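Figure 6 in text form: structure in, sequence out.
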């Protein structure tokens, strides 16, 4: 009898996992349109310990159906940029094709992989730990 239970246990575990309720499987729609919003980042201080907070509020991003993006609203801290993007239900990757300036006075560009959320109106991006920057956040609202 113990031997039968030994073989039955993996079968019961597999059935339990297969029959258990699943999470919400509603796919996240592709973000498309024009969005206006803000940008924020925590950046390591050049001298000493701690972080500085950087914020910009005048960014506009256009995400096209052909997976192209353009950021306008070139500000003191964030540069205008353009390129392509790819996404799945959790991550979105921006490939910036504009010239990126590095070094002193360099501005942030929308590039790299971000976790994102989009509900048809609100579009949010978050990227953690990129060198001296520990957190980058974008909060956009659809305007068109």
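Output sequence:
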């Amino acid at each position: 009898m113990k031997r039968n239970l030994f073989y039955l246990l993996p079968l019961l575990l597999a059935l339990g996992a297969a029959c258990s309720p699943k999470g919400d499987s509603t796919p996240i729609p592709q973000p498309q349109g024009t969005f206006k919003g803000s940008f924020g980042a925590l950046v390591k201080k050049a001298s000493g310990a701690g972080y500085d907070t950087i914020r910009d509020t005048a960014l506009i991003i256009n995400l096209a159906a052909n997976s192209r993006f353009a950021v306008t609203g070139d500000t003191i801290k964030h540069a205008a940029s353009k390129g392509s993007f790819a996404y799945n239900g959790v991550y979105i990757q921006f490939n910036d094709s504009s010239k990126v300036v590095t070094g002193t006075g360099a501005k942030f560009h929308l590039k790299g992989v971000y976790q994102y959320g989009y509900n048809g109106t609100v579009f949010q991006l978050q990227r953690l730990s990129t060198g001296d920057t520990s957190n980058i956040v974008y909060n956009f609202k659809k305007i068109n």
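Caption detail: The chain has a mean pLDDT of 80.
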